[in-house]
């Protein structure tokens, strides 16, 4: 016997309104949530249209909130932020709009602090291995290559 709850379109709308009001969501997350609720494609479309028209779902707002949050709490650089937004199928326009949330002074300040802190924590006597570890760490976090290599060379001589 199938024990999964079934939802009417109205119940799904209410559930997804709450889901979107709790935290900004992108279309892809909403579609996955509706699929996990075992909704049919027509019902998924109807719920998404409802959420869009009532402003529960807005990808530009999602991109801006995502960029602010991941930059502030995870110290991600532009490359990582762009890649993660693309993974969520956010449009180029909305990605650019989201990246405008980054203040240039904050961006470089966070980068410098992150690089200096990480450099102090790397326990490696070989300066080339230490440079590689620091560069890999910063590149993985999505910071731009020229910035990374300039900073690595300035910190480790």
TrEMBL record:
Source taxon at top rank: Bacteria
InterPro entries with a match to the protein in the record: RecX_HTH_2nd, RecX_HTH_3rd, Regulatory_RecX, WH-like_DNA-bd_sf
UniProt entry tagged with the keyword Zinc-finger: no
UniProt keyword annotations, A-Z: Cytoplasm
Main location: cytoplasm
Domain RecX third three-helical: 113-150
Homology family: Belongs to the RecX family.
Name of the featured protein: Regulatory protein RecX
Phylogenetic lineage: Bacteria, Pseudomonadati, Bacteroidota, Flavobacteriia, Flavobacteriales
